[in-house]
Design brief:
The protein is of the alpha+beta class. The chain has helices at 2-6, 82-87, 106-120, 124-133, 138-150, and strands spanning 11-24, 28-39, 49-62, 67-79. A four-stranded antiparallel beta sheet has the order 1-2-3-4. Helix 3 (106-120) crosses helix 4 (124-133).
Amino acid sequence: MKLFGQLPPTEHDPYSFKVDLIHYTAYCAVICISGVLREPSENLLVPERLLGFSRTFVLEILNGDGECCIINEQLHVYNALSTQVATCFKITKPINSTLTLHAQNQKEQQQLADTLKIITNLNTDWSRKCLEECNFDLKKALLLFVDLYKVDKIPPEAFNNNK
């Protein structure tokens, strides 16, 4: 792990990413992600380095519910190709971060309830009520909690009874 701390800081161009699904079964998937990254220079005399990368992951699919575990990976870094240099870091708009993920099954709903419980110190019942009110959207549930808390609409018994 010390090795990772010695690597220079990098910035990836998310618009350069390409993802290939190389192999897929009910138990295993192999994906390859490639793109461009840069190492910012430490001073104005040294130009930043543009590098291409290809990273391959072997994933074990757990329990058939879409949860995965990385069982192997390979990283290849190289000097960026001229075509990559010509097109990378040209788009400056931020990636739309309004993607909302909703719980797909009971296990995910329980994980969200546990997360909300930890963050807010609500008991299990109230954590679940907030999430149900917001269709299990954690961000909306947190905003609802803050709004209710500000106007003192959460009773004392809603907090941390370890229910």
